[in-house]
């Protein structure tokens, strides 16, 4: 085959010529696009290697001419098939994607970047001019008791670069398949052989070995219709009547192999579809599992708030039960009893003289009661609102449309402290607060509140048996990043427990469920932050740190 090399560099032309001539190609050279067009006019050219950057007429312009009707009708002269075009390989120094697109738009068959490794040009040319046979590289088992027929088949197939395994009869062929079935791509067997016929061999391949996909082509001199139909009933993919031509054999093999390849493609497509379906189901299952875990954690958080609500209700109930209003009513009764001589009663009666001061003190006590009850009712309202927000947040989360709003971590910490105020008071916890992150983050507020509630509650519970009970809250902001630290002076965390601390269901508490910290870690991750824990060991306290990078703000 004749290849035209077009390049303004003599060195490049010589290098390309040596490589292509080693591959058995004949070459002609041209130094620019104009000369290349003249060469194509005068010669039968099978492929052009075309430099893009050249004087007079560059490769792109030359390619446009070669793709014109004038040259396409000349391509390969009388041998041209309708619709064929002259293959053109661009050699270019432009490595960009846009350059590649431009090359193909101008009519390039392929392109190579300059500076390519030795052998690359020849590989590209071979791929275009000598495309690999569909049968190349296959392994065929040939079973025939005639040595002459085997030799003929082997010759035909080796010309197509098919690997051959020989068998002299059906029994030998079956033994080979049993031992080497993964190597064999196609079986070609004679019908009539001593020991085991070809149709029986085919049945055993299909039924005993379960090899349904491997093509089996049976050779026979018989032409009876019922016999040929029987071959298909035995499981044959195809048959070939002797004597046959090489082209007929190769055509049957190609069809048989293509049928299998088509089946394999369909199976692969079905497998991909099944994989996608399984992936979708796995994602749905993971999401459902995740939603269930989050819902469990939200219920856990609401239970924490409800405990606080219960304490607040108890405080209000106790205040009302122990209210001094009853004493006020008694004092009111004394005044009513002495309305006729009230001045005399208040100035001369021993009990009456005490009544004004008693009423003043009683008024102050009742005012204090009202302030306390009002404060508790306000807290109750805030806690109920917090539970409402948690439920709404979970509803949005389940629908996949969580609402993000501007949130100040410092303000959210204060809300969380309010929820746990009764627990803090009950356990006599000292609070050290150093909050210096006033800027806002776009986050689901209810989710962040419940993270802080959980971490504060966790710290309080860790200090039940501690002599010093200090809960420290810190927040810092630096270069757009915000960090929040919640520390306690409690029992600390053993090293072997730290890695499992955020695992759903893991707990070291006798009455724990393992929901709280797992929820915190997942919630912070979903909000674009990180949650870390640090403890030097048993009895040395714990520090939880939350970090939000500028990117998550």
From TrEMBL:
Residue span, Histidine kinase domain: 447-552
Reaction(s) catalysed (UniProt annotation): ATP + protein L-histidine = ADP + protein N-phospho-L-histidine
Enzyme Commission designation: 2.7.13.3
Keyword tags: Coiled coil, Phosphoprotein
Coiled coil: 246-291
Entry keyword annotation includes Coiled coil: yes
Residues that bear 4-aspartylphosphate: 51, 190
GO molecular function terms listed in the Swiss-Prot or TrEMBL record: phosphorelay sensor kinase activity
Domain of life: Bacteria
Every Response regulatory domain range: 2-129, 139-257
Protein name, entry field: histidine kinase
